[in-house]
Amino acid sequence: MVDLLNCVMDSAALTIQPTDSYNLGTYLEVAIASYSEHYCHLWQHNDPSPYISKWLTKEVVFEELQDPDTLNYIVYHNTVAVGILKLIINCGIDEIPDTDAIKAEKIYLLKKHSGKGIGKQLLLIIEEMAVKLNKKVVWLDTMQKGNPIHFYKYNGYSIKRESEVVLPNVKPSEKHMWILTKTL
């Protein structure tokens, strides 16, 4: 098996560094900031704490670091932390078995680094990792409203089906998501 957990991938000036107990603080700082910059509008009173307390705490991410199927990375552009990436390497969806799929669960960039081609480079890195792992499909979910759906479709992802955010305090008008797939 390819040792992706301990590798550092580089694409031009873009580097992804595995998260560990030493850089967990940086991972959480960037994750919470980038999530808050892009997704506060989804939550009642613009308060993303239901999501942050469920998925972006030291305890939760530390537990993820113990799971060999979960890969958490800090995304650097040059030497600046600009985002985070979370992959689940054996994660099927519907009829697609775990052995054939990888899920890009979190691709978060700080707002000031969005729109600069970093997301496109990250998708290419994810797809390269998936191929090395003999995966046939990359999948993710994205909000039905907003620009990300157009970005993913432009980069070859197709709508598979609907989904929704199921955490408390999400605005009913904002909970609708798409599950997207890309066959490699």
Tell me about this structure.
This protein has 184 residues and is an alpha+beta fold. It has one domain: Gcn5-related N-acetyltransferase (GNAT) (Aminopeptidase, 3-Layer(aba) Sandwich). The chain is 29% helix and 30% strand. The chain has five helices and eight strands, in the order ββαααβββαβαββ. It has helices at 24-39, 49-55, 58-65, 118-132, 148-154; strands spanning 9-11, 14-18, 70-77, 80-88, 101-109, 137-143, 158-164, 176-183. Strands 1-2-3-4-5-6-8-7 form an eight-stranded mixed sheet, sandwiched between helices. Helix 4 (118-132) links the parallel strand 5 and strand 6. The longest helix has 16 residues, at 24-39. The protein is globular, with a radius of gyration of 16 Å. The chain starts with 8 loop residues before the first strand and ends with a strand.
Q: What's the tally of helices?
A: 5
Query: What distance separates the N and C termini?
Result: 19 Å
* CATH fold call: Aminopeptidase
Fraction of residues in β-strands: 25-35%
Strand order of the largest sheet: 1-2-3-4-5-6-8-7
Total beta-strand segments: 8
CATH homologous superfamily designation = Gcn5-related N-acetyltransferase (GNAT)
CATH architecture field: 3-Layer(aba) Sandwich
Helix content: 25-40%
Shape: globular
Low-confidence stretches: 1-10
Q: Can you summarize the main beta sheet?
A: 8 strands, mixed
Radius of gyration equals: 16 Å
What's the CATH class label? Alpha Beta
Key phrases:
globular, disordered N terminus, alpha+beta, Aminopeptidase, single chain, 8-stranded mixed beta sheet, 8 strands, 184 residues
